[in-house]
Design brief:
With about 240 residues, the chain is an alpha+beta fold. Helices cover about 35% and strands about 35% of the residues. It has 2 helices and 11 strands. The protein has helices spanning about 1-70, 100-115, and strands at about 80-85, 90-100, 120-125, 135-140, 170-175, 180-185, 190-195, 200, 205-210, 215-220, 225. Strand 9 (about 205-210) and strand 10 (about 215-220) form a beta hairpin. The longest helix is centred in the N-terminal third of the chain and has 69 residues, at about 1-70.
């Protein structure tokens, strides 16, 4: 009788110990696995949010691409617009090309950016002899946003200061074969230039180079002539 009771008590104690041990092991397992499970869940939620964001951006690009295909700037006769790349029949790249004054370019690009969210991929500019700018710009089409940063895609500053003759000196002109070069000094900085050279700091290009003078052209087509004189002098 006593032995039976003793064994019964021992078995109860053993069951209690095993139960406590199992509970402890479960707690330890949870302590080990919970951070991993929690991290995986956070990563999954992040991926789902990223997927939803990507889907929303693509829907925005699709909507904007349709608008780009529909909007034609019929009053801008000097330029062309062309869809150059598509994905799943959706326009993804836009090219603008034309020749006009810097002021006409500014007005048109401001209209374009006001209507569409674009990112410039390639910009090629050339100053023509008449002072107009030939431009070719390639854009990728982005998802539209309510607040967009304004971008200045023009090749140079729209306005510069007045031409100050004393800032310029034509130091010498050198001719080698059929190529003529000139050594200019502008605000104490010297530059070797040829016909077609662009001086970004002054906002002027070199229109002509002759045996005793050069002609500079501003963005609006205004021409300025410099002749060879003593250092520190210039001629408008």
């Amino acid at each position: 009788m006593f032995l039976s009771q003793y064994l019964k008590n021992n078995m109860t104690t053993l069951y209690d110990i095993k139960g406590s041990l199992v509970g402890l092991l479960v707690v330890l397992q949870l302590a080990v696995w919970y951070p991993l499970i929690s991290q995986n869940q956070e990563e999954m939620e992040h991926l789902l949010k990223q997927k939803d964001l990507t889907r929303a951006e693509w829907e925005g690009i699709k909507m904007q691409s349709k608008r780009i295909e529909q909007v034609m700037f019929s009053d801008v006769l000097w330029a062309t617009q062309e869809i150059t790349s598509t994905t799943d029949l959706i326009a993804t790249q836009l090219k603008l090309e034309g020749v006009a004054s810097i002021f006409e370019w500014q007005a048109w690009l401001e209209r374009v950016e006001e209507l569409f969210a674009l990112g410039v991929m390639l910009a090629s500019w050339k100053l023509e002899p008449n002072g107009e700018w030939g431009g070719r710009l390639l854009f990728d089409i982005k998802a539209p946003k309510k607040n967009r940063e304004y971008h200045n895609w023009l090749p140079t500053k729209l306005r510069i200061g007045d031409f100050v003759a004393k800032d310029w000196s034509l130091l010498s002109i050198m001719r080698v074969g059929e190529k003529t070069s000139a050594l200019l000094e502008y605000k104490r900085h010297r530059h070797w230039v040829r016909q077609g050279s662009w001086l970004p700091s002054a906002g002027l290009s070199v229109e002509t180079v002759s045996f005793d003078q050069i002609t500079l052209m501003s963005k609006d087509g205004t021409q300025r002539a410099l002749i060879v004189r003593e250092t520190g002098e210039g001629n408008e």
